[in-house]
Amino acid sequence: MKRFFTSFCVLCMFSTVLLAEPLRVATLHPLLTELAQTLGGEQVEVLSLLPPNANPHSFDPKPSELTQLQQVNLVLAMGKNLEPYLDRIKANLPAGVNIYEVGRPVPSVVIDPRNATFACCPRHMHGAVDPHWWQSPQAMRRATRHLGKELEKLLPEHKAVIRERTRAHMDVLAELDQWIEGELNRVPKRQRILVTAHAAFGYFCDVYGFQALPVKGLAGDQSATPAELGESIEILKENKIRAVFPEIGGRNHNIHALQEATGIKLGEPLLADNINSEDTSYVDMMKHNTNSIVAALGEKETP
Amino acid sequence: MRGRPVAELLVALTLIILGIIPVQFLTRTPSGLADAGEGAEDLARSEVWIELRSSHAPESWSIWHEGQQLWTGGGDTRADADLELHVHGGQIQLEVSGSWPDLEDSAYVEIRVEPDGLEDRRAGAWAKQEFRKNFQWSWE
User: Quick one: closest CA in B to A109, which residue?
Assistant: First the structure.
């Protein structure tokens, strides 16, 4: 009887440990790491493959990283063709483990063919879908809701707490959206032209009524000819552009040359593809970009 | 009575035929309705996430679509529901009703719709103690 009781207790403890084991989630972007941890809490264990400051367009997972994926239950990708290596990841996943593309439910913004010359990489040129959907908090809010549902399906015993966290985070994003809208009210309509080092702000421009200006020769992987730079200077002058924005961690050499040639203000560098440190949250990133845009293009506040 | 089976058969057949005609008339699909049915097939059903927010918690509020109440709730300043709606010609029409019996001033009601694959849209209106309003959104 004693032996039976001991075995029963051991079995119970073992079952509890098994049930309490978190969902192992691999993420392919630091913003997804933050999102998975926010919604999943202690019910998820996150393996982050792309570090802050890394370029998601050129990231190539190492064989050792692919091996680590053997231990996960779910892979979160940004989607919209941001990660060209998804097929390699899929080939390395155990049976039954899926890649969930967090950006999939977000309606796509197509890169204006005129802007193709400053697309992030050749894959996103010629009228392709802009993969930088996270630049809109409204898009992030929709993606959050859908990811919450996915996590509820995978962790049905924690459905209530995941739903609660999802709603709380959606509220944070709604507040952020309102805050950005309020701040951008200081940017007059005629100044709502965003000249950046690469076409990563299509969703932002779409939501907040900005125009992404096509300026030739700014794409980092293209060397701008003097003629292209000359054309860009003309476009900036014609549109009475007040500021151009380099990118934190981006390839900005042409934008600096352009700024020097035109005397146009250089805005505080923006965060486009990635956050720049582990301490930077999504909200921090969006607030930083908004503050930078308002500082460069906004009207001075009247005291 | 017994000697006229053919006549009885004819009478029975006549009665049956006379019976069939009105029944068929009553049960046939009128051509106008058939057209409406075909038109209804043009309506795409879409999964739509709807979020309601109000500055004051309503006692009750409901979402109506094509004359049917699809969702009802109350007691909170926020609610959301996944509903399957008809998107006709790129348009969605909804009616929101609500009741704030203790409301002294007005409540602001905001509705946001997120159809799968389409941009989200939102609209708002001021409500008194009783509220019923149509909302319509269109997508290109």
Answer: B119
